Amino acid sequence: MLVGVPKEIKPQEFRVGLTPEAAREYVSAGHSVIIETGAGLGIDKTDDDYRQIGAEIVDSAEEVFARAEMVVKVKEPQPNEWVQLRENQILFTYLHLAPDPDQARGLMESGVSAIAYETVTDAKGGLPLLAPMSEVAGRLSIEAGAQALRASNGGRGTLMGGVPGVLPARVVVLGGGVVGTQAARMAVGLGANVEIFDRSLPRLRQLDEMFQGRVSTRYSTAGTIEQALATADVVVGAVLIPGASAPHLVPREDLKLMKNRAVLVDVAIDQGGCFETSKPTTHQEPTYEVDGIIHYCVANMPGAVPLTSSYALNNATLPFGLALAKHGVEACKMDPHLKPGLNVHQGKIVNEAVAESLNF
Ligand SMILES: NC(=O)C1=CN([C@@H]2O[C@H](COP(=O)(O)OP(=O)(O)OC[C@H]3O[C@@H](n4cnc5c(N)ncnc54)[C@H](O)[C@@H]3O)[C@@H](O)[C@H]2O)C=CC1
Ligand SMILES: CC(=O)C(=O)O
Ligand SMILES: [Mg+2]
Prior knowledge:
This protein is α/β, with parallel strands linked by helices. The chain has twelve helices and 15 strands.
């Protein structure tokens, strides 16, 4: 199969769909790989690095989209990308369609078969192609929160770990999955006071065990969240209902319960966000303020650390990508975990949760 990788075009997105090491695996398996010139520069890989493993460098994204039988990307296609997709072509990337009906329509009209990283599953009920980026985003969320707390950035002026004689910041994490766990680890590492909320009691038990008393766990209800908001310095939004838009756990009116210039970090923004007042931001302008509360809502957080992120992502996507390259879209029928990854096929939304969420 001819596999193509365009350069990412979202603002400040420096990851790449295939690292040279991953591209080499495709070539070894007998596939051809074309890479848009400069696609790897964000991870310090030159065109020559790709040429050396047997890939062909092409001058434009247009050529990649026109020639490739499978396009491998990182972020969801932008409007000028989705118009270049076509029937009998596979797109393998993050899509996050539930909160994005325009993209959903664009992909349906293109006729492409689009497989979304974030809805591929594993035998343990996890999301193996989302997990590595959730690990990155979870860890970054605390760095982002700590930065936003600085007075020079509009925040309350609280130091995460406090100092002897002065209390540390209170960090509230909504959702104790991959993002939430990594956020909690980082916050604990900085010496913050941490509470994690989840709706799953088995998960709360695991977290309790894992953190050995360094983190408090709480069952997530509107009431318990309201109580926590009153004392929080940073609230990390890390919930997920796979395929669906994130539930709004904090309505706008609840911002008045919070301390002035406290910080909301909405990692779940790519699924629409879990605070009512969230709207996607970019690394260029990551924060904004609503009712005295600082919001950080960057939808491609891992793009800020493209080296770590591209390798972590490729480690997870490689076996699935190789299966798609070998068997085409039929691979989704052969692998029950790749099957839910197929979001758009023959002009229809074919993942049930995504279709339901979009009301399609
Ligand atoms: N902004 C960014 O750059 C990135 C965003 N993400 C997003 O972060 C979000 C979380 O991802 P993961 O941690 O991998 O998901 P996950 O599935 O590992 O964890 C989600 C957790 O939320 C819990 N949950 C569901 N409803 C809840 C509720 N009402 N209250 C409290 N907890 C609830 C679930 O029980 C689960 O433990 C997703 O939307 C994902 O797309 C992930 C990576 C990068
Ligand atoms: C998961 C996701 O949206 C990202 O890595 O940007
Ligand atoms: Mg995202």
